[in-house]
Amino acid sequence: MGRKNTIFLVLIVALITNEAMAEQHVVGGKQGWDASTDFNSWVSGQTFKVGDQLVFKYSSGLHSVVELGGESEYKNCDLGNTVNSMNSGNDVVKLNKPGTRYFACGTLGHCGQGMKLKITTVSGTSSPASSSSSSSSSSPTSSSVSQCFSSLVFIVALLIVSLLNQF
Ligand SMILES: [Cu+2]
């Protein structure tokens, strides 16, 4: 019985930690993936880290999501050479490595109306060079990393305890 409780606790902590480490970015915020949303200003308020997810929310059938191959396709709304396409209305894209990715709506004309997105994913451990204006001594990046690390230590400790309880 003690063993079951411990395993249960470990699972809960693991879920909470996973939630804290990986962020879900709902594209466009409350307005979602829509022609009226200003995606440039939405992007400027976000930090995309490796492990985070993009969620495109929209009315299925009205819009779709295509991933574009590069900068020129993004600039010219060239949808003839797409990397990936989704149309569920609740599409999740995992940002699994650093770099720039380009998305657009696949519906004719919508990309030209502004339904396109350029995001740059940064590695979670890099120092925040862009936000140097802050006078605070503790950067948010380092605190979240150490929080993440201490949670991992906690999980490992709980796992060891649960293993010991088995014998
Ligand atoms: Cu659209």
TrEMBL record:
Q: Which residues cross the membrane?
A: 144-164
Q: Which UniProt keywords apply?
A: Copper, Electron transport, Glycoprotein, Membrane, Metal-binding, Signal, Transmembrane, Transmembrane helix, Transport
| Signal sequence segment | 1-22
Q: Record's Gene Ontology CC terms? A: plasma membrane
Q: Keyword Signal on this protein?
A: yes
A Gene Ontology molecular function term of the record = metal ion binding
Family annotation (PROSITE patterns): PHYTOCYANIN (PS51485)
Where would I find the Phytocyanin domain in this sequence? 23-123
One matching Pfam family? Cu_bind_like
Q: What name does the UniProt record give this protein?
A: Phytocyanin domain-containing protein
